[in-house]
Amino acid sequence: MTALHPLATAVEHPSPAKGGLPAWRLVAGLALAPAAFSVQVVASYVVAALGCGDEGAPRVLLIIVNLIAVAATFGGAGVAIANFRATRDEKEGGHSRLQEVGEGRTRFLAYFGVCASLLFGLAVLVQLTSIFTLSQCLGFASSN
To answer: What sections of the protein cross the membrane (predicted)?
Structure first.
């Protein structure tokens, strides 16, 4: 009773590269950039709210929090790109076929990690830019 049904042997595994890529790498590629953005938004708000009312504004701490978020986002993007390259041989076709058909779960998760990392990377950079240009706390914005 160990023989598989002929139909089960005719179908390919939906994720042939599943064992070739550690789960922590997939999770890091998927979650590092969104987590960095979330921490950046919350920490920037807390630091600015607690310290900007005083004359000793937390300029250095605010900049450090945001630069750590930028570094974590680029780190997550690097892991996601490495995952995407590591799963290159999982299924035939490029990223457009991957979007249309969706075969190869590991490759799809790696591709989704790249897209999410780039999107959240843009959000982190916009947040960092807005802190420099709009923040009265840092002393760069005009105080009308």
So the answer is: 26-48, 60-87, 108-134
Rounded CA-CA distance 105/110 in Å is 9
Q: How many other C-beta atoms lie within 10 A of the C-beta of residue 5? A: 7
Provide the terminal-to-terminal Cα distance of the chain, rounded to the nearest Å: 81
Q: Rounded to an integer, what distance in angstroms lies between the CA atom of residue 70 and that of residue 32?
A: 11
pTM, entire model: 0.72
Give φ, ψ of 4 to 5 degrees. -80, 155
Structure tokens at 2: 């160990």
Supply the DSSP string of the chain, one letter for each residue: --SPPHHHHHSPPS-TTGGGS-HHHHHHHHHHHHHHHHHHHHHHHHHHHHHTTSSS--HHHHHHHHHHHHHHHHHHHHHHHHHHHHTTTSSSS-HHHHHHH---HHHHHHHHHHHHHHHHHHHHHHHHHHHHHH-TTTT-S---
Residues 6 or more apart whose Cβ sits within 8 Å of residue 130: none
Write out pLDDT tens, residues 4-14: 666 556 555 55
In this prediction, residue 96 has a pLDDT band, given cuts at 50, 70 and 90, of low
